[in-house]
């Protein structure tokens, strides 16, 4: 009998270590899901799935959503959420296209103005949230409608065609330029997304500002009492996220070749999906840029694999929905156990 207690404690100790490891490394589970998914689809689909062209195609498909998901990660780490990222992206692309082609601005200046417009939209979100102390969900739900209305008003619901942009402002399509790497094709937009991810990873993990973001999301009151200006952190995060959405607008033009007011119809939910599946907690303070990239790849590969397997789009969305519920449920379970 006396020997039973130490054995139980040892088992409990190992279990607690595993839980603590998973809680401290939120990218582990998404990485396992990605690896298992790749293995399953390779068996179902065959060699086509791992063909370099197909892999590079998936990367191109998730580039725009991945860019928005990076912005969304910063916001969710502060225990917020932004439902307007897709609308900001489309608005930025419309600003670029309208200024360059309709108003005759130099294309380079129109590009900068579009990215700045994204930053201004993010700053507006940040001001409403920090100064008026309104919930991020309500603020960004409202600005999502406002930004969409501005897009429709300014564009007149009309698409600026690919040929017009190529003739007048080819720099707006620069991110869609493809490079052949063996049998794979990489776009400059994908490389830009990966470069931005490296920069944000460094910022979050190697700078005091990154630690302030995590601290604000984990416990805003405790962070304030420790000397962190949480309002300034929140405002700067929404400003930065808006600027990233502006860059995403540039990447969107390169991806589709045109300026369309309907270009980001499902971008808001897709960005949140990538972040949540990537292991970032909706309650703030826990998550990573690497996890978000893995989450975006999970969404991309699952949709691609199911499509190659011949399944209807309905089942693709069904699978992604199940992954979201499981990811959030697992996060809440980890939080309860770790506490």
Automatic annotation (TrEMBL):
It comes from the Bacteria. It is found in: Cell membrane. Keywords: Cell membrane, Membrane, Transmembrane, Transmembrane helix. GO terms for cellular component: plasma membrane. Its main location: membrane. The chain crosses the membrane at residues 27-45, 57-77, 83-102, 109-131, 137-155, 186-204, 233-253, 274-302, 314-334. It is a multi-pass membrane protein. The keyword Translocase does not apply. InterPro entries: ABC_transp_permease (IPR001851). GO terms for molecular function: transmembrane transporter activity. This is Fructose transport system permease protein. It comes from Paracoccus laeviglucosivorans.
């Amino acid at each position: 009998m006396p020997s039973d207690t130490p054995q139980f404690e040892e088992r409990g100790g190992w279990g607690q270590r595993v839980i603590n490891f998973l809680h401290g490394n939120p990218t582990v589970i998404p990485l396992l899901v990605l690896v298992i998914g790749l293995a399953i689809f390779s068996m179902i689909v065959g060699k086509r799935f791992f063909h370099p062209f197909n892999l590079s195609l998936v990367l191109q498909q998730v580039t725009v959503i991945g860019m928005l998901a990076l912005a969304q990660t910063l916001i969710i780490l502060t225990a917020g959420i932004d439902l307007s990222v897709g609308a900001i992206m489309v608005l930025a692309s419309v600003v670029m296209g309208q200024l360059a082609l309709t108003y005759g601005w130099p294309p380079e200046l129109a590009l900068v103005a579009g990215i700045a417009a994204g930053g201004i939209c993010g700053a507006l979100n940040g001001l409403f949230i920090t100064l008026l102390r309104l919930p991020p969900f309500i603020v960004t739900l409202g600005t999502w409608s406002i930004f969409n209305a501005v897009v429709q008003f300014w564009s007149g619901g009309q698409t600026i065609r690919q040929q017009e942009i190529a003739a007048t402002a080819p720099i707006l399509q620069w991110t869609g330029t493809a490079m052949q790497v063996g049998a794979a094709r990489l776009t400059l937009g994908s490389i830009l997304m990966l470069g931005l991810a490296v920069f944000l990873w460094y910022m979050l993990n190697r700078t005091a500002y990154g630690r302030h973001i995590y601290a604000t999301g984990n416990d805003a009151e405790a962070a304030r009492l420790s000397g962190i200006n949480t309002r300034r952190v929140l405002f700067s995060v929404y400003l930065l996220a808006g600027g990233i959405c502006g860059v995403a607008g540039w990447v969107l033009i390169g991806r589709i070749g045109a300026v369309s007011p309907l270009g980001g119809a499902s971008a808001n939910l897709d960005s949140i999906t990538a972040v949540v599946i990537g292991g970032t907690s909706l309650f703030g303070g826990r998550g990573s840029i690497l996890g978000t990239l893995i989450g975006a790849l999970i969404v991309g590969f699952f949709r691609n694999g199911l499509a190659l397997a011949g399944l209807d789009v309905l089942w693709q969305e069904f699978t992604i929905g199940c992954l979201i519920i499981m990811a959030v449920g697992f996060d809440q379970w980890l939080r309860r156990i770790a506490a």
